[in-house]
Structures are given as structure tokens and as C-alpha cells.
Amino acid sequence: MRKTVDILGIPVDAVTMKEAVEIVGRFIEEGGTHAIYTPNAEIIMQAQRDPELKEILKRADMLTADGAGVVLASRMLGNELPEKVSGVDLVQEVFRAYSKNGLRCFLFGAKPGVAEEAAVNIIKDHPGIVIAGCRNGYFSDEENDEIIDEINRTSPDILLVALGAPKQEKWICSNLERLNAKVCIGVGGTLDILSGRVQLAPEFFRKNGLEWLYRLCQQPRRAKRMLDLPRFILRVWRVKLNAGKTSLSKGKRQ
Ligand code: UDP
């Protein structure tokens, strides 16, 4: 049975990286299609304003905590998530764990050429991985059927969808039933990182929950979106306060 932690109405799976990788392996063995998303504080805040996104996240087969903010929130709420399981790290661990099984992976998203560059690096680092196909993430509604056919012809074990949030979550959810991919993961900027075009935050920032600061310096245009981070913590704090009040008044009544 799934053990989840409720973060502002989003049931994030309480899994370690090792467990998340095992779950991906199980989904691949089971067959069928599965949706995995890796919400961070920004996405959880977007979901507060967008009921469709909230519903999509709630219907996922696995949601992992992408970011120190989500783990901090779980700690504040007294139900701590074991660790951060970000999209980019999860993908690399899955490659490491299953490359010798000839894992078939389709890379969908990012600017033209990025997925192909990522594919070269993936094969170099994990020679057993089969890159079943690549497709950039800029397309019109009319091209959607053609993209799905292209993916389905390759029957991938894993489909990485890198369209940014919430576009990738909405795309996966609305096409899941038509897709012939065992596991679809919304991975944001992961292909940019795997291609080497964007650098992952240095170890110091990653270890100390400061990836947001590194990202802000690299991409200052994200500043407005990042205001959601303090809003997120404030909102979690309010939930914690209200929960405290409720249990206090229950205690008095007894
Ligand atoms: N992207 C895309 N199609 C779009 C919009 C964005 O393929 O219509 C890609 C973009 O090129 C980038 C990724 O989606 O590779 C978004 O990365 P970001 O780090 O902004 O992810 P987020 O934080 O939004 O999840």
C-alpha cells in the first residue's frame, strides 16, 4: 500500500530514492501505463490555483518530492518525508539500476536538438540503455497525434516528458490512455541538464537546500515564479497552526 504525506492537498509518496527506483522497476514489469510526477514547492503552489493540475497530481501513480522545500514542509507538518527525490536524480538512478536490462527510453521535450544531445550523453554513461526515440517539445495541437504515434511505434519502457510544469503533467494525463509507454515521467528541465546545456547546481547548493538560489542566479527571469517558495512555506505554516488549534479545542471538549 502507498504511504503518502499530504502537502497542501497533494499526496506526496513517502519514499527514499532507492524505493522510488524499485517502484519504477515494478511499474515496468507490470506493464500498462503509469504516470509519475515530481512536484516541487512551485508546482504545489500552482496546484492550489489550478484545480485541474491538483486533480492530475492526485491521480498519479507516484509523486516524489522534488526539492528541499517539500521535505521541509513535511517536517513542519510532523509527518516527515524520508528524502528529496528530484526528477533529474530519479532519472539517473533509474538509468543506473536498469541499464543492463536494456531499458528502452524515449526522450520527449526541450528545444530542438537537446534530446539528441542528452541521448549521446546517456548512452555514453549507461551503455545498456536503448534510446528508442527523441522529439523536441515545441509542437502544435495538430502535431499531437503524430507525436503519440511516433512514441508508440517505439514501445518505450520509460517516456521522459520535459515540457515544464504544468504543461508536462497535463500532457501526460490527457494522453496516458493512448500511450504505449510503461512509465511516463514529467521531468521539467532534466533533458537540458543531461544534454550539458544547463548545469546542475553545485554540491554545496544541493546539499543545503539552496538549489533555488543557484537557479535564481542562473535564470533571474524565474524570480516572479519563485515568490511561490515563501508563499508555500507560509501556507504550510498556517496549516500547521490551524491543525494545532483544532487538536487543542478537541482536547478541551473531552
Ligand atoms: N519546454 C518544452 N516545450 C514547451 C515549453 C517548455 O519542451 O512548450 C521545455 C523547455 O525547453 C525546458 C523545459 O521544458 O527544457 C522546462 O524546463 P524548466 O526547468 O523551466 O522546468 P520547470 O521548472 O518548469 O518544470
Q: Which parts are unreliable, with pLDDT below 50 for 5 consecutive residues or more? A: none
Largest sheet: 6 strands, parallel
End-to-end span in angstroms? Answer: 33 Å
Strand content: 5-15%
Q: Taking all residues together, what is the mean pLDDT?
A: 95
- Distinct ligand kinds: uridine-5'-diphosphate
Radius of gyration: 19 Å
Based on Cα principal axes, name the global outline. globular
Order of helices and strands: EEHEHHEHHEHEHEHEHHHHH
**Total domains:** 1
Helix content class: 40-55%
**Number of H/I helices:** 13
Number of strands: 8
Strand order of the largest sheet: 4-3-8-7-5-6
- The SS-based structural class is alpha/beta
Written account of the structure:
This protein is an alpha/beta fold and 254 residues long. The chain has one domain (4-253). It has helices at residues 17-30, 41-49, 51-58, 68-76, 87-98, 114-125, 144-154, 167-175, 190-195, 203-207, 211-218, 223-226, 228-253, and strands spanning 4-7, 10-13, 34-37, 62-63, 104-109, 130-135, 158-162, 183-186. A six-stranded parallel beta sheet has the order 4-3-8-7-5-6, with helices on both faces. Helix 6 (114-125) links the parallel strand 5 and strand 6. The longest helix has 26 residues, at 228-253. The chain binds uridine-5'-diphosphate. The site of uridine-5'-diphosphate has 14 residues, from helix 9.
